[in-house]
UniProtKB/TrEMBL annotation:
<feature type="domain" description="FecR protein">
    <location>
        <begin position="132"/>
        <end position="222"/>
    </location>
</feature>
<feature type="transmembrane region" description="Helical">
    <location>
        <begin position="90"/>
        <end position="108"/>
    </location>
</feature>
<protein>
    <submittedName>
        <fullName>Ferric-dicitrate binding protein FerR, regulates iron transport through sigma-19</fullName>
    </submittedName>
</protein>
<keyword id="KW-0472">Membrane</keyword>
<dbReference type="InterPro" id="IPR032508">
    <property type="entry name" value="FecR_C"/>
</dbReference>
<dbReference type="InterPro" id="IPR006860">
    <property type="entry name" value="FecR"/>
</dbReference>
<dbReference type="GO" id="GO:0016989">
    <property type="term" value="F:sigma factor antagonist activity"/>
</dbReference>
<keyword id="KW-1133">Transmembrane helix</keyword>
<keyword id="KW-0812">Transmembrane</keyword>
<dbReference type="Pfam" id="PF16344">
    <property type="entry name" value="FecR_C"/>
</dbReference>
<dbReference type="InterPro" id="IPR012373">
    <property type="entry name" value="Ferrdict_sens_TM"/>
</dbReference>
<feature type="domain" description="Protein FecR C-terminal">
    <location>
        <begin position="267"/>
        <end position="334"/>
    </location>
</feature>
<dbReference type="Pfam" id="PF04773">
    <property type="entry name" value="FecR"/>
</dbReference>
């Protein structure tokens, strides 16, 4: 038997039940006494010196001496040389006792650690919902809360969501949160953390300069920058545009209902620039838009229902922003004079 490898596999919990039983039976055999020689004794000694294990060796020797009262602790041993062979036999027996006990302890602890790690892995299993361009979905979470996820957006959250109501957001989503005072509902969007108990709010990371817009419709939410204690609270009809490195957090009044028209399939532009319009249309319809010429610095507004075609939207917006367009499948070209 390759004792070292077998012992290592046993201590690491890699042996099957039958193999472990066979190894424990071997440790009680005469052959084991031969193998458990000075090398094993030295290994055990080094382990204790290194402080890797906390074992009451005095107590261990007392247990051994209960079966052999004439044998004393190693530090107190004053036996005649004639009993050296007998002492060696008992020393080997003691080592077998120690190794057997430690191996069994390691085996049990290793199994417990692995089982605990498996339980944690199951608890920490994450779920990600992702929408491509042109897609919008409604996600009902385990606690009954509802998330309306916009195009080109994603949310990531724990499978055990009732116990861990935390979400990572990329893009834009509208949240209708079920009240649970014991488990706050937390959304982290690019370092801006929104905390709520029971409320409805919209978060968008589709803003300029990597800023995050949080708009509150009902209830109350707390906003803070990740890693910072300072926070502000939003009341219904208020919005805040934040980034993790802003020195001050501010809020302002908005028409909050207009901010979630997208959840009803309504496409809305409010004094949008050309760049903003292009970004929204690409995300909404899943197309690619190219710009030719030199556009003027104009803004445009408009509201279009879910049945409105991209061609009609471009016709309306083109009159304000002064462009003509060419459609080639999913590729659109805007031409400016």
């Amino acid at each position: 038997m390759d004792f070292k490898n077998k012992y290592r596999e046993f201590s690491e919990g890699k042996l099957s039940q039958s193999e472990a039983k066979e190894f424990l039976e071997f440790l009680e055999s005469k052959e084991a006494e031969v193998l458990l020689s000075a090398e094993i004794i030295q290994l055990w000694s080094d382990t204790i010196k290194a402080g890797d294990l906390s074992i009451d060796t005095n107590e261990l020797w007392k247990k051994i001496n209960q079966k052999r009262n004439v044998y004393t602790l190693p530090s107190q041993q004053k036996e005649p040389k004639l009993k050296k062979a007998s002492n060696l036999t008992w020393l080997r027996a003691a080592v077998v006792f120690v190794v057997l006990g430690l191996a069994t302890l390691f085996y049990i602890q290793d199994r417990q650690v692995k089982n605990h790690s498996l339980e944690l892995a199951i608890e920490d299993t994450m779920i990600t919902n992702t929408n491509k361009k042109g897609e919008k979905t409604k996600v009902t979470l385990e606690d009954g809360s509802v998330v309306y996820l916009n195009s080109q957006s994603s949310i990531t959250y724990s499978k055990n969501f009732k116990a861990n109501r935390s979400i990572q957001l990329e893009g834009e989503a509208f949240f209708e949160v079920v009240k649970d005072p014991d488990h706050p509902f937390v959304v982290d969007a690019k370092g801006i953390v929104t905390t709520a108990l029971g409320t409805s709010f919209n978060i968008s990371t589709f803003k300029k300069d990597q800023k995050v817009a949080v708009t509150l419709l009902t209830g109350k939410v707390k906003l803070n920058q990740s890693g910072k204690e300072a926070y502000i609270e939003l009341n219904p009809g208020e919005e805040s545009l934040l980034s993790p490195d802003l020195p001050e957090m501010e809020k302002y009044k908005v028409k909050s209902a207009d901010k979630i028209l997208w959840t009803q399939g309504i496409l809305s532009f409010d004094e949008a620039t050309l760049d903003e319009m292009v970004e929204i249309l690409q995300r909404w319809y899943g197309v690619t838009i190219k710009i030719n010429g030199q556009p003027q610095a104009l803004n445009a507004s408009g509201v279009f229902d879910n049945q409105e075609s991209l061609r009609n939207v471009l016709n309306v917006m083109g009159k304000t922003l002064e462009f003509e367009f060419v459609m080639d499948g999913q590729k659109i070209t805007l031409n400016f004079n």
